[in-house]
Design a protein that fits this description.
Blueprint (H helix, E strand, L loop, with lengths): L3 H9 L5 H11 L8 H12 L10 H34 L7 H8 L20 H13 L14 E4 L9 E4 L13 H8 L8
Antiparallel strand pairs: 1-2
Helix pairs in contact: 1-2, 2-4, 3-4, 4-6
Length: 200
Amino acid sequence: MAGFRSLARQVRDPRCDLALRRYSLRKCLERFAPYGHRATWDHLCSRAGFGPEDRSPDPARLVAALEELEEARSVWLAYEVEFAERRKKEKHDGLRRPGTVDDWHRLTWGGFGVAWCDDPRVHPREPLAEVLRRLISGLEREPGSGCPVCGAERLIWKYDLDHEPSAGPVCTHCGILVPRPVLSPEALADARRGRLLVSA
């Protein structure tokens, strides 16, 4: 099975058939898809300027989509390295019990669904790398009341998500499943009650 970098080389290779280049970009999403496969594909297509069903997109647009994905992957892999180093130090210092961020992180190792969007047409519009930087910043500060990606405080608890966890607080503005560790107990309780939070 080809890895991300091997697939990325195929996307860039002008000697490859255009259908293979498009297919290889889609396969990259099996290795790294922050919003989930379908929502990440929709995001990349809209940002690069070709349709999700376009079977013969401009090769330059395919490469532009790949470059955005690669930048975001670099951001996430750097975070995972820092995370692993922190956990190693904590274990060395005797802290064996992982926290809530660690529990969340185990479900997202490798970057699949870190900012899960259950509706593939509703996702943040900013570049993927910027979205991941905001998400990581949210994980590194004290829990708050809003979405770490867009800042909106309109969250609602949704069930039967096509992801693990299968229920949780979803931002009604950008569509991500907000990681529970970034939210205060009050914000989680309000989302569970179905009350939409409105910024003052």
